[in-house]
Structure prediction request, 392 residues.
Amino acid sequence: MVFGKTASRIVRIFIIASLIVTNSCIDEYWPEVLPKYERLLVVDGQIDSEEGPYSVSLSLSTEVDWPFFDPLEGCIVTITDDLGDSEQLTEIGNGKYLTNKQGIKGIPGRSYKIEILTPQGKNYQSDFMKMSHPGVIDSIYYKTANKPHPEFERMMSGLQFYLNGHHENNSSFYFYWKIEQTYKFNANYRIRFYYDGQMRRFFNPDSLFTCYKNDLIPNIYLYDTENLNSREIMDFPLHYVNTETKALSIRYSVLVNQYIITKETYKYYNDIASLNDEQGDLYSRLPFQVRGNVYNTEDNDEPVLGYFMVAGKSTKRIFIDRPNYLDYYYSDSCNLYGPDAELLWIHRNEWPLFLPAFPGTGGASPAWVDYQWCVDCTKSAGDLAKPEFWVE
Prediction:
């Protein structure tokens, strides 16, 4: 079972009930939201069977027609196991709380709960939830796939990813996957000049040319074996990566985080997904209609959004070099012009401006580009630092 649409980030953002990106051709329906559904606690956290630290993010829900991330700071957050061991998380800012790497451990077969004390004196907690043993990801693979473009009358070229896996115990299990993608990409041109009131040579043209970008795929992926004889998962479809962006342009990596969750956790995410339309976007109803596993200890009628997940976890990562057999359509709208004084002055608030050179001039003639991301990969939300896990 797969819920979500890669083209839209609305699923993940509605799960944390804090931030909305409205990028869809589907008509959105916003029902009237009562005041009691604003400024609600939003919990997004987990403890799993892999080594910590484990994180919990706390925020407050905002108005539907004016959404933004509103972190809840100054809370006391504690994770406790069924043997009475507990750890108070450290606040690191922006509503995020972390355990110590050498702190509480997620151990399959044990049960865990979260407790939250807000600066206003409100107490929230979850009930104990038992951690399952992790499953096995046998393989991640991909196939070439063409899909209709949502805006243009042509097909998109790309790769469809799949997963094979199993659980070694012969009983019913519930699977949930979170997928992260990381890719290496280049700016369209190297920098040869910069302008800060005067045209100057730029002597390190590769310094802003290559970046790495990491994204969480916003789709919800669920699978249960309750009514199946086999505990194996074969050819389960994951996300689709097209060539409309630079994701596949040089080298691409996908990390699959597989969680074995409880039936209650499965029901929560399945209910969240059931709010979606057939294409997977949370437009028809709002997530306050789905209650998570955290509640106000003194007022059980108070809605609390989000979830504290307890799960057995396994991971697998693969790398892919640029598939040269695909048709690439990522933006190449970086036209070159002769820079004139008026144009450079109009953009004076952006100084220093980086400029490439006209091809065929041996780097001697500066050119104006439409956008700075054409020459500076960090302007495309890229990171210059190579990730620790990256291999060429």
User: Anything to note?
Assistant: The chain has a mean pLDDT of 86. Residues 7-132+264-312 form one domain. The first helix runs from residue 10 to 15. The helical segments are 10-15, 263-274, 341-346.
